[in-house]
Design brief:
Elements lengths: L3 E5 L8 H13 L13 H4 L3 H8 L14 H8 L3 E8 L6 H12 L8 E4 L9 E4 L2 H4 L5 E5 L11 E3 L2 H10 L2
Parallel strand pairs: 1-2, 1-4, 2-3, 4-5, 5-6
């Protein structure tokens, strides 16, 4: 019997890009932003110095050093028993991130094989049973069942099933078996 498939986003779902952005932004600008203080804001509003963010996202070692989301490794190991997992990241916008994301995945998720990693531009072509992502621009085109992973920028969007953390994601997906 074929395992059901899950497309899982990296930034904001497996990798805590928000923590990294906030940390770098606060250090550079003497601010005290936190995930709570920017909750409900868009990235443009939360991070007023857009040029700084643009340079940061195109800088060497930014994506390689992202922290792992709490419970992500254990959760994917658990899901891997019953689902075929694909890591799908719209990475081509940031070419420097391609090799860094591959190295990051090899370090933190060595059980995900290279042929289950998709680094792309648009996710519209991804055809899996489920997609876990933090951006509606990806979930709105999901061919399977979209699952929104909570992030500061999506808390006011409610047109997809939402999970707030990896434990909730595992529980939701295990219900479908």
């Amino acid at each position: 019997m074929r395992k059901k498939t899950i497309a899982i986003d990296m930034d904001g779902v497996l990798a805590d890009i928000d923590a990294q952005l906030i940390d770098h932004y606060n250090k550079a600008h003497g601010t005290t932003l936190s995930k709570e203080s920017i909750k409900g804001l868009t990235s443009d509003v939360a991070f007023k110095e857009r040029d700084f963010i643009h340079k940061l996202l195109h800088s060497e070692n930014f994506f390689r050093t992202l922290p792992v989301m709490p419970d992500a490794v254990e959760s994917l190991l658990e899901l891997d028993k019953d689902f075929e997992i694909f890591i799908v990241s719209a990475a081509t916008e940031f070419p420097i991130s391609l090799s860094e994301k591959m190295a990051w995945l090899a370090e933190h998720f060595p059980f995900i094989k290279w042929d289950n990693i998709i680094l792309c531009g648009s996710k519209r072509i991804i055809n899996t049973d489920y997609m876990i992502d933090d951006h509606c621009k990806n979930l709105d085109y999901c061919m399977g069942k979209p699952i929104m992973f909570t992030a500061f920028h999506n808390v006011n969007q409610n047109h997809h099933i939402r999970v707030n953390n990896w434990k909730e994601a595992v529980a939701l997906l295990k219900e479908t078996l």
